[in-house]
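Aim 2 progress update. The chain analyzed this quarter is reproduced below.
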Amino acid sequence: MPPPNGYSINSAPSDGGEDSDPLIKSDAVPRQCCSARLNLAVLMFLGFSVVYGLRVNLSVAMVAMVNTTDPKTDANSSVVRACPLPSGTGNTSDVFQQPEGVPQFFWDSEIQGWLLGAFFFGYLCTQIPGGYLAGHYGGKMFLGLGVLSTAALTLLTPLAATWGSHWLFALRALEGFGEGVTFPAMMAMWARWAPPLERSRLMTLSGSGASFGAFLALPLTSFICETLGWPAVFYLSGGAGCLWAVFWFAFVSDDPRTHRRISNEEKDYITDAIGAQGTGHGWSLPLLSMLFSVPLWAIIITQMCSNWAFYALLTSLPTYMNDILHFDLQSNGFLSALPYLGSSLVSVPSGILADYLIERKVFSVTVVRKLFTFTGLLLPAVFLTAVGYAGCDHILTVTFLTLSTSLGGTSSPGVFINQIDIAPRYAGFLLGITNTFATIPGVVAPIVTGYFTEDHTMAGWRKVFWVAAGINLGGAIFFTIFGSGEIQPWAEAEEDRAAPEKKRARSTSHQNTTYTTEEATHSDKVA
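Predicted structure tokens:
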């Protein structure tokens, strides 16, 4: 009869083992299909799809909310067109005809800019405290309440808009305040749930919900605004977030040890694979060591570089499609969303490939993280540069933009999950730090883009793409030099620091479990 732990997780190669041997025996790992850890990844995927939809819906709905017949808001009256209008096309600003009785507002471009940026004022405030508390208490409550609060506040958007732009600004800032805890809470949960050799695939699957949510939100918002009116956008998306929260609180647990429906086999597999790093970090933190940690600064700098291009495109791509290429707004919504679908589709296979390379010992964790990060930042930079020289060719422009954002998905199993490699116990807090810095481009990039493109010329937009590509390339080089995939000394659990020989003995015991079981079975047959 096989022992309860009849599988082996070889965190280090055994003495005399072949290099081609996998780190995990494929028949010894509990299946992922319908497992508790896969169900958690799917629920996170859906949750981040919702929150990103809640984040970007205002950028499209704003077109329907603003009355463009007012001279102060008529953006097309003085635009110098870089590309000719398609034949038979008139003014593109009056496509959204709202149903009777739906209010519209006379907000000039400055007010619109403040409203679109309000979210980030709140978002910056809760990343670090959210990550700290989630690392101590567990991430279930913080992630669930983060999505639920954002969704509930979204339901109030039409009311706040009718009260005035100041009320809407405050509401959007509160939404960002609530949503700021979600990504750090996700990282804190995976520190307790993701076996080291499954981190890439589980975390890229859950995180890809952000790109998928942007893909759905952009065209759906356009469609809903045209058919039901812009208030319906916020009622439907807010309701979807509240419905998701019901399933989240019903089926998710902070820790595999407390999950009510997990099998004993899967629970033992996860807890044995993660070890002491799967526990909370307590109240004290090695802040000074974190401050001087080069691998941590490598993550911070690289994520800021990568997010510059992401936020520049997320906020400005619909404008480029409209002002330069003159797509109608329905086509604009779909084509602006297409790159994010590509990113979502690329990131998940990249995570599976990254885990495979680590499991088969083709590369170390450090090399895998650097390889996927370098690829995920360099290739988008190449195609972003190409966009600037595609001119008025619609097909080439859409192709290059889609390739750029899609190939950026290969960085998902790279720098964007690297916190859990260098400090699993503090992963939620570290993500709060890195994501706070990485949000700064969300504030700065649209301002710089507006400065470059104020004259609506192709040369101005070419500068936007050149700057984004250059920053991307700088981030790729920086992480390749200074990044790491090893647990840092300041992040080791006290159990591992106090008894490293016990840790090695436990690893050796796991390495030999499968062999011992087979040997015992053979002896019984001989007897």
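The radius of gyration is 25 Å. The chain is about 70% helix and 0% strand. These observations will guide the mutagenesis experiments scheduled for the next reporting period.
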